[in-house]
Each structure stands twice: as structure tokens, then as C-alpha cells.
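Researcher: Structure prediction, please.
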Amino acid sequence: MKIKDLCCDEQPREKMLRLGPGSLSNAELLAILFRTGDGKSNAVELGRGLLLKAGQSLGELSNWSVDRLVQENGIGPVKALTVSACFELARRWFSENRGGRRVRICNSTQAYEAISPTMKSVQHEECWALFLNRAYELCAMEKMTSGGLTQTTMESRGIVKKAIEKNATAVILVHNHPSGNPLPGKSDLECTGMLKSALANFDITLMDHIIVCDNCWYSFADEVVHNK
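Model: Predicted structure follows.
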């Protein structure tokens, strides 16, 4: 069935115009991004099918690459790029909004709460840095690398440069372990030591290094695993 064959109350665009975006299901919102179906299924049905493959999880779907998206029936490059761009805008908005509100971060729990919505369900390693001012207010939160923590020297330089640009006096390093094990490995320990020394040269404090998993996190400052 095509979208135009649905009654007016069931058409996503018309429903959104009348009732607002909050009235739409996730599948209907995806249908608006898709615009059209694939000849066999309408846009809403494509959205339902995609969500089903992602376990009904937007977090899981947000981590699918364009190459992964186009493997699904009815999802061509244009639809895949549109969905990927939408999720990336959402991530950037969240980061910008958090920074603009000057959230105060004084401990690992507050740091985890600030970063976890951004890193939740990410299936590859990402390294983020939280930049704080003298009042421990969040000035900025930026992704530094994606795919691992191997180039520690370059990462340290990049984080120090960003900290200076942001006039930050403290930094919290955050990365995730998709494996679900929050305990630090050898490379994590080396990265922490190198960054701490590099920042200290500019009188900037490495306040903490946090390893995030979906249900817990490890804090270098606390030296303990915290559960949600």
C-alpha cells in the first residue's frame, strides 16, 4: 500500500502538520525522511522494518553506517545518507546544547551523565574530551577520535590544543569499551599518563579519565567501577 492510499489521518506528513512531530511514531518519522517507499512497501513499512532489524532501538540504528543501512531492502544510498545525517545532527545538537547550558561537573557521575547519551550503544571505540573552566562548568564536549586509542601522542596534542583554544583549566577524557568490560587496559593507562603530562605543561588538569560501557563506567580518579 502506498502512503497516498492511506486515509488522511494515517499519512505521516499530514499527521505531523496537524498534531506536531511528537504525535508520530518512530517508523512514521523515518517515513518522512524516506519520502517514498520501494514499490513493494510504503515509507512507513520501510521504517517499521528497519526498526525491527535494529531491535526497536534508535540507539542501535544511530550507529549503523551508510554501508550497513543500504544492506536493508528498500534502503538505497539516498535514504541511508538522509538517516545518517539526521542522527549526526542530533548528536551535534546534544553536544552543543549541553555545552551552552554550562553544566557543572565535579565528579565522575556527573561526567558520565553528561556524556552517556552521546556514547550509548556505540559499537566502536570513540574518544571524547570534556573541557571545563575554573568553576568546573562544561565549556565544550568534543569527539577527538573514532576507532580506538592507538595514536596516543597525536591525541594528546589535539586535546591540549583544543583545551587551550577553549580556555579550559581542566579536562575529562572519556572513551568507551564496546566489549562491555570497563576496566582499563595497558594502552588506556599509557594514554592517561601521556595526556596528564602534556596538559600539565600548560597548567591544565586532567581531572579524570572515564571508560564508558552501556551499564557502567570506570573512573581513573575514583579507581572504581560504577554501575548505573
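Model: Confidence is low (pLDDT under 50) at residues 149-153.
Researcher: Thanks, that helps.
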